[in-house]
Amino acid sequence: MKNRVFIALLVAILVAMVGCQRPKAEYVKSSGEMLGTFMQITALSDVGVDVIYERMMALDKEAKSSMSIFDEESLLSRVNRNQTDSLDSHIIHCLGLARCVTERSGGYYDVTVAPLVEAYGFAGKNRDAKVNVDSLMEFVGMEKLRVENGRLIKSDPRVRIDFNSIAKGYVVDMAAEELESMGVEEYLVDIGGEIRCRGRNPKGGAWRVGIETPYDGNNTPGSSIQQVISLTDCAMATSGNYRRFYLDEKGNKIAHTIDPRTGKSAVTDLLSATVIAPTCAEADAYGTMFMAMGAKRAIELSREMAKDGVMVYFITAGEGDEYNVYYSAALAPMLKSTEGFNVIK
Question: What is the mean predicted confidence (pLDDT) over 115-132?
Fold first, then answer.
């Protein structure tokens, strides 16, 4: 009798243990919208796709309520209106990174260009009939801001911040870190074409992503691929002036990238700048920085940044419909093709 009871208890324990085991990990895909653009995640996970989606939507809400300039009630919008000077960890982190990029760029990158972004009509509002650059430049410059004990101190209350050149990359990093906190070690996060990946794809190889052809009017992501690149354990972002621009009354192209040194739209010979970096926030900010300075300075600076694990893929206009490509030497094994391209050594 005792043996039967023991066996019955043992069977019950084994059944309970099997029932408590986590399901086998498999590759899942979660898609939706984050920060007003598409989101797609591929991950080797033992949690359901619904759980991943819910976590991403929670991050989206958190990021928008913190850093969105399109949400009048976000913390950043209230800071810009001087309704509060109290900052959260997201804004403090992005300001710290932005300051480092500003210093490294020699002034070609600056998140205090918000008044200019608004005046040119790239902040979700009607653009000014005439942009008074000289007047607005009085409120531009990272030196006009400092953070003390979690509070923002402005030298002029009219200084405002625009994180659009860094926030999307930062949220990609947030999403990647959230997946890792769930035990996910193989993933690709893609939010609006900005990417962070780890490990291998479902076929056991590196993650293959496309770099778009930067022609004016290319408004459909993925519709025209200029290059395929294989990535693992890194982040990638591409900046360009071929999607968000308009022509003024004189037919001049006004692009969303602003040169903080002049206050003018930065339409340079660089058509697109793809950056591979350890984090997507860095890649995002560096891409904007390179676009503002143009190909020559960008190539020179990219040589210095190579020691920090930063790689680049620049596209400039060639003859007719042709393009000139400049890429970091370390990037060569990751590119599908390098024939006819220029290597940056």
Answer: 78
Q: What is the pLDDT of residues 235-251, one digit of tens each?
A: 999 998 877 777 777 77
What are the structural domains of the chain?
A: 75-154 (1.10.3980.10), 206-344 (3.10.520.10)
- Angle of CA points 266, 267, 270, to nearest 5°: 110
Residue carrying structure tokens 């050149």? 165
Q: Which residue, 157, 143, 156, 148, is CA-closest to 99? A: 143
Determine the Cα–Cα distance for residues 146 and 144; give it in Å rounded to an integer: 7
Cβ contact 295:310 at 8 Å: no
Taking alpha carbons only, the member of 325, 331, 328, 333 closest to residue 344 is 328
184 and 45 Cβ atoms separated by less than 8 Å: yes
At 42-59, the pLDDT tens digits run 999 999 899 999 999 999
User: What would the two tokens of residue 312 be?
Assistant: 């680049």
Distance CA 197, CA 222 (A): 18
Kindly report the CA angle at 341 between 189 and 256, in degrees rounded to 5? Answer: 55
- Sign of torsion over alpha carbons 155, 160, 164, 168: positive
* Helices (H), ranges, the chain: 2-20, 49-67, 75-80, 89-105, 114-119, 133-136, 167-181, 280-293, 295-305
- Tally the residues of the chain: 345
Selection from 156, 193, 167 nearest residue 76 by Cα: 167
How far, in whole angstroms, is CA 199 from its chain's centroid? 20
In a 3-state reduction of DSSP, which class is residue 281? helix
List the beta bridge partners of residue 45. Answer: 26
Residue listed under structure tokens 């590119």: 335
Residue at 244: amino acid letter: R
pLDDT digits (tens, 9 = 90+) for 199-258: 999 999 999 999 999 876 666 666 689 999 999 999 999 998 877 777 777 777 777 899
